[in-house]
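Troubleshooting log. The previous structure file for this entry was overwritten by mistake, so regenerating from the original sequence record. Sequence copied from the archived sheet and checked twice against the printout by T.R.
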Amino acid sequence: MSKQIAIKPQGCTNFKLRQLTRRVSQHYDNEMSKVGLKTTQYSLLSHVLKAGPSRPGELAQAMTMDASTLTRNLKPLVDAGWIAVTAGSDARSRTVTITEAGRDKRHEAQRHWKAAQESVNRLLGVPRVLALHALLDESLDLLSQEQEDGDSDGE
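Regenerated output below.
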């Protein structure tokens, strides 16, 4: 009779993911800095461009971001004139839109984002990046399902 040994992950998953995130972010941030943006700002410009005029709550949800984090991240983009936050359809709502200057800045930054993407693909290898994307997508789905199941408990 053979004994099977249970294999368990070693180390903290959160710590390992944060290490990877920091390393990957360095590649993107190095490229984005060439046009005066942070990666988070490029991402926000891209999301607002793609979504069109949106309420802040909808945008935060689409980006899986807290409303307070979104507000903090929007401020420098608004100050630079790349994003506009205007009154919405009623007195309590607001609408987030990208300005023409924001479209131009995002377009200028896009080739730097592509350069960062190609750098990561080259360093890790395209098959590994594809596998990483698949694993991340699957993990996000599983964690989202678990959170949704937890949110519905007791209601």
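Residues 51 and 59 are 8 Å apart (CA to CA). Archived copy saved in two places this time.
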